[in-house]
Amino acid sequence: MEVALGLVLPIFGVIGLGYAAVRSKLLGANVIDGLDAYVFTLAMPVLLFRNLAHTEFPAALPWGLWISYYGAMLAVWAVGSLIALYILRRPAKDSVMLGFGCGQGNTIMLGLPIILTGFGPEAGTPVFLILAFHGIILFTIATFLLELTRVRDGVAQPRFQSILKEGLLNTAKNPVIIGIAGGVVYGQLGVPLPAVIDNSLEMVAGSAIPCALFVLGGMLTRYAIRRSIGAASMTSLFKLVAHPALVFVLAQFVFGLEPLWVAAATVLAGMPTGVYSSILANRYGAAPGAASSAVVLSTAASLVTLTVLLGFFLAPA
Q1: Can you tell me the distance from the alpha carbon of 198 to that of 202, in angstroms, rounded to the nearest whole number?
Q2: For residues 65 and 130, is the Cβ–Cβ distance under 8 A?
Q3: Span 263-284, average pLDDT
Q4: pLDDT confidence tier of residue 153, bands split at 50, 70 and 90
Q5: Which of 80, 117, 180, 237 is deepest in the core (most CB within 10 A)?
Q6: Residue 176: how many CB atoms within 10 A of its CB?
């Protein structure tokens, strides 16, 4: 547990520094937005590209990894939505959004820094394989379900084809996905990166993790535990406990993945609800208060749950 605390506390320390800098008005929102743009359009894609360019991928498609992660994600999403609909008595669109928060984690800003720092660059392989489909699966399904709940002139209009097309286009234009795809393609060429280029990329990549954590802290000032604490608590419990527990059972006992892959997938699943949950909730007017509360509540609680998860996987055999 000491090792886990030594890993988690500095990470949350940088998040806290970003939060304090914005809350105290030392830095303005425009600075955080600019740094956010730098992280996601340049630094994080460079980190992903460079790591993947040096990564050897498995010969067979990792169906066990994908089913473990995404099967668990869809399961907690479905159960969370049903609880919100039938037990919490929330409207259909709110239920979709609350279920979405049970499965959508902060994989980039928090997941990558924690996993790469805790388990080393070798853990990047299973994480990158998961992230390659993360956006298209999550956001296409979420948008489609939310569109189903919208009633226009008394008739639901899902427009599935246009939603799928938009999801694919957004995924193809996503700098993180471009970084992943570019790294995979270049890595398969078997041509080493020239030293000058590799050193330059290394310097930019080195800024990705601390900047992402700082941005996360700054962005948390935009969200608050406003209302719907019961719904937010349910979402946080599913995201921080149920999702990683189910991933671990599937990866470890059903598919028998190698230990590093089990650890990486489980810890990635244990990330708190991502800020996109609140953004999407506000866009559709679907439980925006509960979604915002879940982001803050799950992030705060993850200091404990991630320490426990990392302590479990990093404990000496």
Answers
A1: 6
A2: yes
A3: 88
A4: very low
A5: 80
A6: 23
b/e 97-123 (16+ beta carbons within 10 angstroms → b)? bbbbbbbbbbbbbbbbbbbbebbeeeb
Mean pLDDT value of segment 12-30? 91
Higher pLDDT, 240 or 164: 240
CA distances from 273 to 25, 140, 240 (A): 26, 17, 8
Calculate mean pLDDT across residues 296-310.
92
Name which residue leads in pLDDT, 273 or 184. Answer: 273
How many alpha carbons fall within 13 Å on the CB side of residue 64?
15
Give the C-alpha separation, 242 to 136, whole Å.
22
- Angle value at C-alpha 65, between 64 and 67, nearest 5 degrees: 65
Q: Which residues lie closer than 8 Å to 21 by C-beta, 6 or more apart?
A: 27, 214, 217, 218
Q: With a cut of 50, say whether residue 155 has pLDDT above it.
A: no
Token pair for residue 9?
């506390």
Task: Using alpha carbons, select from 286, 316, 278 the residue that is nearest to residue 93.
Answer: 286
Q: Which residues have C-beta within 8 Å of that of residue 77, sequence separation ≥ 6?
A: 99, 100, 102, 103
| Rounded distance between C-alpha atoms, residue 229 and residue 247, angstroms | 26
88: Cβ contacts below 8 Å, ≥ 6 apart: 95, 98, 230, 231, 234
CA distances from 64 to 120, 253, 261 (A): 22, 11, 10
Lowest model confidence (mean pLDDT) among 99-108, 116-125, 186-195, 208-217: 186-195
Phi-psi group of 120: left, alpha or beta (phi > 0 → left; psi -120 to 50 → alpha; rest → beta) = left
